[in-house]
Amino acid sequence: MHVSFNQLPGSARIWIYQAERPFTAAEVAVLQPALQQFAEEWTSHGRTLAASAEIRHQQFLVIGLDEAVADASGCSIDASVRFVRSIEEQLQIQLLDKAKLAFLLNDKVHLLDRRELRTAVAQGLLRPETPYFDNTISSVGQLQAAWPAPAAATWLTRYFQSPVSAVEK
Q1: What is the pLDDT of residue 163?
Q2: Which of the listed residues 91, 123, 142 is the one where a domain comes to its end?
Q3: How, if at all, do strands 108-113 and 100-105 pair?
């Protein structure tokens, strides 16, 4: 059954799929009914799931599930991935590629290849306070509290730590 995202509890499980580019307004308009239909029809071993799906920041598809109602099974998770793949095919957009990281720069989502992190930090493009979209978070509570989060408050903190000099050793 479809549940509004703001009605999901903080403990609800989420999956975040990052698009390779922003969704257009027309694409979002096409997606809205499909997202609602998916959440309405998503089941696990015949049990109705309390779920929601929405587009955030014009670049992320977020699926939420209240596991207090019913847990997702392997088959239901597979069904959600098939749904995401169908969106990829329909809109000619990549959502399952994890090679790029997303940051909020000048109020726009900016994607950066993982291999470019050190250089971006060294050049000052990324700073400890730069908002980072950590798409590995797993609950609605984390999504609401810290998404995006300052880069240095995530696993990226190591990129902002000064190397220890030989004198300090």
Answers
A1: 61
A2: 91
A3: antiparallel
